[in-house]
Write a structure and sequence with these properties.
Blueprint lengths: L1 H13 L4 E7 L5 E6 L4 H7 L1 E4 L13 E6 L5 E2 L9 E9 L10 H14 L3 E13 L25 H15 L4 E6 L5 E6 L2 E2 H21 L3 E3 L13 E9 L2 E2 L12 H21 L5 H5 L8 E2 L1 E3 L6 E3 L12 E3 L8 H18 L16 H7 L2 E2 L4 H9 L2 H7 L1 H20 L3 H7 L4
Parallel strand pairs: 1-6, 15-16
Antiparallel strand pairs: 1-2, 3-4, 4-6, 5-6, 7-9, 7-10, 7-11, 7-12, 8-9, 12-13, 12-17, 14-18, 16-17
Helix pairs in contact: 3-8, 4-5, 6-8, 6-10, 8-11, 10-12, 11-12
Length: 445
């Protein structure tokens, strides 16, 4: 760690860095930032930087509001969009109380704690997110709703299109920040794009997602458009998901791979999927944390609505992608409910905890879904045992409230805060009179 610190201090000096931003995330997944002068960085490393945690969503109770942000030197990067005028660096922080204890409500710590539990069982957790978002002409919208920047579709090549330049600039910026991108392409909705980050350990991936959102927003501002990670911004068009591929490794060996097994999927892999399916409803209020998230889940267009798994079945909640011959390391499972607006630290912690529970308890994996689950009737789905995902945020909160797994993984304070915050959101949503009701009922009744 000392070597890393020295490297950061040397880099700041050599590159003439004028500001260093310390980044951390609140419980809802909003990025927080405080800028310090280069001269303050050494002190921040040794003592942390004090701030009032009661001002941050969910971080403390008001009577224990003093917190310290400790920059993680391994996350230091210079921000490419700041250019050469005032070179600016950034580091992610771990949050502690003044006596050096990890702050119980720091989402990064929640994930670290769950990763430590996996490490005790001999596992390292890797994730690979496919992040979808919409590019709109502006953040304001008229009677027609938000206006996408184009009317292109899946994998379309749009000559001279905004999205090309946008993706090229974003990918280059992410690479400058040390974040490897695997794919980028136009998605199914008008103005919808997808950028996939390369496999990395889950903590690095969660940090990368937070950086990714910032980069996408910055590039959008630069190009005169607006980027949104809202799960379902356009009615009747696909929602924005964050399908996440996951695998557990034991040392250099992929614990999900077993040569000769069905789909080359090991017993560990099967139990992990069973854990995800068993606890999917309990973790939904975190993987799909907004009222709008459920418009995506129940709006069709490849969003999963039912709890089942399948091999290469895009209508299933958990998909086992096609096996690449002679590439045992690539065996993985894909969780398709997660949306682009989730807090990645908390969502990864809960998906990992659910999978580990399946392994610990030896959960049995039910038979796979071979049909298109959306085209079945309700009675056919019932007969096959495919339960529904929650239909609303309120429904998801009822499951979460009863969940020992979620309470234990998040810790009491985060658990209670999420419930409180999301109940408030649901009440505000439920109390409004919507354009739909006025249009349907005002003249008729």
């Amino acid at each position: 760690m000392d070597k890393q610190r020295d490297f950061v201090l040397r880099t700041i000096e050599e590159r003439g860095v004028k500001f260093v931003r310390l980044w951390f995330t609140d419980v809802i997944g909003t990025l927080k930032s405080v800028a310090i002068a280069p001269a303050e960085v050494e002190g921040a490393f040794t003592e942390g930087l004090g701030f009032d945690g009661s001002a941050i969503e969910g971080l403390t109770r008001s009577y224990e509001s003093d917190l310290l942000a400790h920059p993680d030197p391994t996350t230091f990067q210079t921000l490419p969009w700041r250019g050469e005028i005032d070179p600016t660096g950034r580091m992610f922080c771990d949050i502690t109380t003044p006596d050096g204890q990890p702050a119980v409500a720091d989402p990064r710590h929640v994930l670290k704690r769950t990763l430590a539990k996996a490490a005790d069982a001999g596992f390292t957790f890797y994730t690979h997110p496919e992040i979808e978002f919409y590019l709109l002409k502006s953040s304001s919208f008229g009677a027609e709703g938000p206006e996408p920047v184009d009317s292109a579709g899946y994998f379309d090549n749009v000559p001279g299109g905004t999205a090309h330049d946008f993706r090229r600039r974003s990918v280059r910026m992410l690479e400058d920040l040390g974040i490897s991108v695997e794919y980028s392409h136009h998605e199914g909705g008008p103005g919808q794009n997808e950028i996939d980050l390369r496999y990395a350990d889950a903590l690095a991936t969660a940090d990368n997602i937070m950086t990714f959102r910032t980069v996408v927003k910055e590039v959008a501002i630069e190009q005169g458009v607006y980027a949104t990670f809202m799960p379902k911004p356009l009615s009747g068009k696909p929602g924005s998901g964050m399908h996440t591929h996951m695998s557990l490794f034991e040392g250099d060996r992929n614990a999900f791979y077993e040569e000769g097994a069905q789909y080359q999927l090991s017993k560990t892999g099967r139990q992990f999927i069973a854990g995800l399916l068993t606890h999917a409803n309990e973790i939904a209020a975190v993987t799909n944390q907004f009222v709008n998230s459920y418009k995506r889940l129940w709006g069709g267009d490849e969003a999963p609505s039912f709890i089942c798994w399948g091999h290469n079945n895009r209508s299933a909640l958990v998909r086992v992608p096609m096996y690449k011959p002679n590439k045992g390391q690539s065996t993985r499972v894909e969780y398709r409910a997660l949306d682009s607006a989730a807090n990645p630290y908390l969502a990864f912690a809960l998906m990992l905890a659910a999978g580990l529970k399946g392994i610990e308890e030896g959960y049995e994996l039910p038979p796979e879904a071979e049909d298109n689950v959306w085209s079945l009737t309700d009675s056919e789905r019932r007969a096959l045992g495919y339960a529904q995902l929650p239909a609303s945020l309120d429904h998801a909160l009822e499951y979460m409230e009863e969940s020992e797994l979620v309470a234990e993984t998040l810790g009491e304070q985060v658990f209670n805060y999420v419930l409180l915050n999301k109940r408030r959101e649901w009440q505000e949503y439920r109390a409004q009179v919507t354009p739909f009701e006025l249009k349907s009922n005002l003249e008729m009744l």
